[in-house]
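Internal tracking record. Fields below are filled automatically when a chain is submitted to the structure queue. Please do not edit lines marked as system-generated. If the sequence contains nonstandard residues, flag them in the REMARKS field before resubmitting.
Queue: standard
Priority: normal
Entity type: single polypeptide chain
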Amino acid sequence: MPFDELRTSDGGARQGGADLWCTYAAVRALTWLGEKPSFPDETARFLLASRNSDGGYAWQKGLNSDAWATYYCTQALNDLSVEIPGREELERWLATTRTTSGGFAMTPGQQADVWATYYATRTHAEILGTEVPQPEELRLWLSGLQRPDGGLGWYPGAGESDVRACYYAATAWRVSFGDEPTPWHTDSLIRWLGDRQTPAGGFVFDEASREADLWATFRAVRALAALGEKPGRETDCHDWIVSRQPVSGSFTRWDDYPHADVWAAFSAVGALATLGRAPSDPSTVVAFLKKCELPQGGFTYRRIAAAGDSLATAALLLINEDAGESEVSEELARWLQEAHLPYEGGVMYMPGRGAEVRCTLWAVSALSTTGRRQLDPDRLVAWLRLLQNTDGGFGYWHGRASDMVATASALDVLAAIGSPANVLDTVALRTFVDSCRSDVGFRYSPDAAVTAASTAQALRVLHRLGSHEGLEEEQGGAGRLLSLYASRLGGYGATPRAVPDLVSTYQVVLTQQTLGLPVEQPTLDRFINRLRLSDGTFAWSPLGRHSGGPLAAALGTLLARNSPLPALNL
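SYSTEM-GENERATED OUTPUT FOLLOWS
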């Protein structure tokens, strides 16, 4: 089976290499415990490899910069006492994420959300040592986050309050304005946070949640600290956190969840430090974290042999469909089914962190394509309804500003489970898609660039909403619009006359099939053959003659089959 070396002992598969999110959490937790990684130089090189020429950092090498990755990379490098390169470029890039509303966006062109505003303000204060430009605009934006229930939302006008939003906003205020009084009704905010503490002592994220969560507890404790307060039942809170660490082990995130992971360790150590405490046995936490460390640098979220992720697992299940290895396929499918944990409505990239709509789509599509038992559709629908932003679109995870990839993924999930689009606010959905429209296609977000992928995804969304017919009069029709991105080399490029790439091509062909448009199979086959490598894997681009790993292999293999494509978005 291809990529058999990436199979994990828990039945799943991993992409190989370290993960940025895990690396930041592990380095930060070790720093709090007075320790360093075993391979600090290698970890620094891993982090620096994510730096782009624009001065920002990406989740993985080759992707676009975003505020999330930039914060994680620079904070971890700072903890490792590594000089941050290109500070002027970093500051210039950070300025491109500032919005006219006063907050910060995760990527240039998106709307502001409190996740990105937190990352950007901390990068300004703690990495660059600079004040946020136009501070009055930031004050105004932050002041608009308080909701009628007293809590804080993800952005002004958000539909629900969340302890994470409270923490991010309160911390953004403190790093930007110091001890100045906050702009919110503080007593109401503190009361709302206090009401999230469960009888057991831990905290939940919001009013609808019932299961105490270590991440929620960490964020609630930190939010209260930023407001000059402690949990109302501090001893119960401490005892619940400590109870998450079994004898001779590290921390687990929920009461009935048996697996220790890096994020749980990070949350527990951080929460205890905020309460002026420490783990009862710090050495076991350090030992666990170092078992998650890769010799080539960086960390995974569990022991390396058991660190499966939903994207790689779904990819291998799809690749393996015709390989006749049913036992392996059953294990991969079971991993995806079990990754739909009872604590989250969607599927997480790595079990133990927050659910993401793109990862959920890969899991749903892989299970559907291979005829396996599907995830609980009622839970998926309820989660997607919660995820929909007030502008009508969707972000990668709860509270993220809307983008076309996540929005298309939400509609693609509904289609895969046989649920109609009208379980969502379809009027608002159309409004978001229209806000991304341009003369030559559709943008990733309202003020971002137009690409072939975002155009294909928007056309698919409109089709699922029953709006495709309107495109026949506008811009010469959907087929002609997609043809703008066709390459003479075969396949499709991200922009007109660009070198064709696998992601853009997959999105265009998927949309052509969905809309019943003709697919030029001979030119597509020619392009796929340019990407196919001697070992049977695929490159992302004909210019890069090295394997793109299991995700590229899944897209290439599926395109080469000349059969209906499952919806897979990146």
